[in-house]
Amino acid sequence: MSYFKQEIIKITLPTPFAVGDVHAYLLVGDTLTLVDCGTKTEESRNALEAGLQAEGYSLSDIEQLLITHHHPDHAGGSSFLREEIPYIGHPGNQRWLALEEAFQQEHDEFFLSLSKTLGVPREYEGFIKYLRSSLRYSGNRTLTSFLNNGDEVPGHPGWKVIETLGHAQSHISLYRELDGSMVGGDHLLDRISPNPLIEPPVKPGEERPKSLLQYNASIKELYQMPISIVYPGHGGNIEDVQGIITRNLDRQHERAMNVKAMLEGKPMSAFEVCIQLFPKVFRKEPGLTLSETVGQLDYLLDLEAIQPEETKSGMVYSI
Ligand SMILES: [Zn+2]
Known about the structure:
Helices cover 35% and strands 18% of the residues. The chain is of the alpha/beta class. It has a domain at 3-98 and 139-253: Metallo-beta-lactamase, Chain A (4-Layer Sandwich), CATH 3.60.15. It has a six-stranded mixed β-sheet, with helices on one face. The chain has a four-stranded mixed β-sheet with strand order 7-8-9-10, with no helix packed on it. The chain has a three-stranded antiparallel β-sheet with strand order 11-13-12. Strand 7 and strand 8 (172-176) form a beta hairpin. The longest helix has 23 residues, at 241-263. The chain starts with 6 loop residues before the first strand and ends with a strand. Zinc ion is lined by residues 69, 71, 167-168, 186.
C-alpha cells in the first residue's frame, strides 16, 4: 500500500504582503510534489531551499509542482523549480498565469463596466490599473496539465482534488479520505475568512461569479465531510474544522446584517457602502475592499433582504 509512505511536510516562507508568511507543503508519495511555492522573491527562495534541505531534499529533487490557486504568494515561485517538471492545478489558473493580451483587455473592460455598476467615481477608476499591475507577480510559467474536482493527484494515490471556489475561481484543496487530511490553500484559515475576490467571468460577457455565495456553499459542503485536519496556506493547522466553518458563516451573516442596517432609510451604491465600511483602507486596497463589499451585497440580495435599483450613477441598494 503506497498510502503509508505518504508524508506531508510544511515549509513556511516569508511574503512581502500584509498576510505574512505562507506555507508550502511537500507531499512525499510515489512522486515528490511541492504544493504551492511562495512568492517570487530571493527571501522566499532561500527559505524554500533551507526548508527542503532540512528534510534532506533540494529544489532539483522536486518532481511535480501543484498550486492550490494562482495568487502570487502561492504560485510566484514556480520559476525556482526545474522547467521540465509537471506544473498542475485547476484550469481556472491558466488565464492568470499566461496573462495573454486578450485576457488583460477583458480584465480591464470587466472591471471598468463593474465600476460603473458599483458607482465608483471616475477619479478612482485608476484602481483597475493597480489591480492589473499585481497580476505579473504570479510567476511566468503556465500549467502543463489540469486538475478538476474529483481527480486523483498524480503520484499520490488516495489524494483527491476538491474544487473549493470562492477566494479564487481557480481554487482547489487536496483531500485524503483515509485519514481526513486536507491541504486547504486559503479556503479555511484559523484566524480570518479569506477575501471573496471579484474575478471576471470565465467566459467573457457571462455574469460574474458571486464569490462569497460560492464560498459559503463550498464550506457548507465541507462541514459534512469527516475532515480531521486542514493544512492551510497561512496560520496554524485547523482541527476544529466545523467550528471554523460555523464561525465564518456566523461572522459573515453579522457583517451582512451590519450593511443592511446601514441601508436603512439611506439607499446607497456599493461604492458608498464600501467607503463607509473601509474609510481608510479603501484607498490602499480598493480591490480587496470592493470585493468584500460586493460579497455582503450579493449575500443580502440572495436573502432578498435588500432591493437593487438601476440609476444613472450605477446600482443603488435599499431595504
Ligand atoms: Zn490567495
